[in-house]
């Protein structure tokens, strides 16, 4: 657990958030010795260890207090919070900063040929997604009786494969939707990468002091890029 003296930070090992998260850590003066295959990377100039994992694991690692800080997309963070809340697991965290990368939106998209008059058109339908909690919360808010069908990959081919009537997936340029004959209809969540801190449990004065020393540097980097 993170009662180790060194500050533990979780970052995505390889994916869309990895390079920007590592670049930010380097920009605030943390020297890192990252070896591609390894789960852990040690800083050579600060008492910091990086845990390099799948992004899906990062919210839980922070909420269970296994790591002190984590870089994660708000989409994944909010989905996992809802899932953990439903399962009676700890779901608290503190957002330290909203970052300037990882921007995307979670949207409902329907096949080109579907007659869509608004969210009511999804009444009684099945919608494929990797984010069932966010999607079902949206349906509940709108008073729509539709079903979220969980798929962990290739969500965009679900309607064509006859697995669902529509999809709810992350969109950035919209090229993937277009390539699959889908049209974006409802934006249900806007996301960016965030830096989060564990909320439960004691944190040593040394770790808190280190975080307090690093945060102004994060602000400096974000400001310089504006
Ligand atoms: O292996 P691991 O589990 O760590 O990675 P992953 O495959 O689950 O995640 P990854 O690396 O693809 O994405 C990590 C995070 O990046 C997401 O949780 C978002 O917060 C953020 N992000 C930003 C995106 C996108 N933009 C994005 N466009 N994540 C995924 N996409 C996908 C989307 O799912 C769809 O397949 O890109 C496609 C759509 O892109 P456009 O440009 O065609 O619209
Ligand atoms: Zn993932």
How would you concisely characterize the structure shown here?
The protein is an alpha/beta fold and 226 residues long.
Structure description:
A 7-stranded mixed beta sheet has the order 2-3-4-1-5-12-6. 29% of the residues lie in helices and 30% in strands. The two termini are 37 Å apart. It has 6 helices and 12 strands. By secondary structure, it is of the alpha/beta class. The chain has helices at residues 18-27, 58-63, 74-86, 132-142, 175-179, 205-225, and strands at residues 7-12, 32-33, 40-43, 48-53, 69-73, 93-98, 104-111, 126-129, 147-150, 166-171, 182-191, 193-198. The mean pLDDT is 96. The protein has 2 domains: 7-102 and 192-225, D-Maltodextrin-Binding Protein, domain 2 (3-Layer(aba) Sandwich); 104-191, Periplasmic binding protein-like II (D-Maltodextrin-Binding Protein, domain 2), CATH 3.40.190. The site of zinc ion has 3 residues, from loops.
Annotation, overall tally of beta strands: 12
Question: How is the biggest beta sheet arranged?
Answer: 7 strands, mixed
Strand residues, percent = 25-35%
Taking the alpha carbons of the first and last residues, their distance comes to: 37 Å
What is the H/E order?
EHEEEHEHEEEHEEHEEH
Tally of domains: 2
Catalytic activity: 1-(5-phospho-beta-D-ribosyl)-ATP + diphosphate = 5-phospho-alpha-D-ribose 1-diphosphate + ATP
Subcellular location: Cytoplasm
Organism: Alteromonas profundi
Pathway: Amino-acid biosynthesis; L-histidine biosynthesis; L-histidine from 5-phospho-alpha-D-ribose 1-diphosphate: step 1/9
């Amino acid at each position: 657990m993170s009662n180790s003296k060194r500050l533990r930070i979780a970052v995505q090992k390889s994916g869309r958030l990895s390079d920007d998260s590592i670049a930010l850590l380097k920009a605030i003066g943390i020297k890192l010795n990252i070896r591609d295959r390894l789960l852990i990377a040690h800083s050579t100039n600060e008492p910091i260890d990086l845990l390099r994992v799948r992004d899906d694991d990062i919210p839980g690692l922070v909420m269970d207090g296994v790591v002190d800080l984590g870089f994660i997309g708000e989409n994944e963070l909010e989905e996992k919070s809802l899932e953990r809340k439903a399962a009676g697991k700890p779901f608290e965290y503190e957002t330290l900063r909203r970052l300037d990368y990882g921007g995307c939106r979670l949207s409902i998209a329907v096949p080109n040929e579907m007659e869509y008059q608004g969210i009511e058109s999804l009444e009684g339908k099945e919608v494929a997604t990797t984010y069932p909690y966010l999607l079902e919360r949206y349906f509940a808010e709108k008073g729509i009786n539709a079903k979220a069908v969980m798929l962990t990959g290739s969500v965009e081919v679900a309607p064509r494969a006859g697995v669902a009537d529509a999809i709810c997936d992350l969109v950035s340029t919209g090229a993937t939707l277009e390539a699959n004959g889908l049209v974006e209809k409802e934006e249900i969540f806007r996301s960016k990468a965030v830096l989060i801190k564990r909320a439960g449990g004691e944190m040593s004065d040394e770790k808190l002091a280190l975080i307090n020393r690093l945060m102004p540097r994060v602000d400096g980097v974000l400001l310089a890029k504006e």
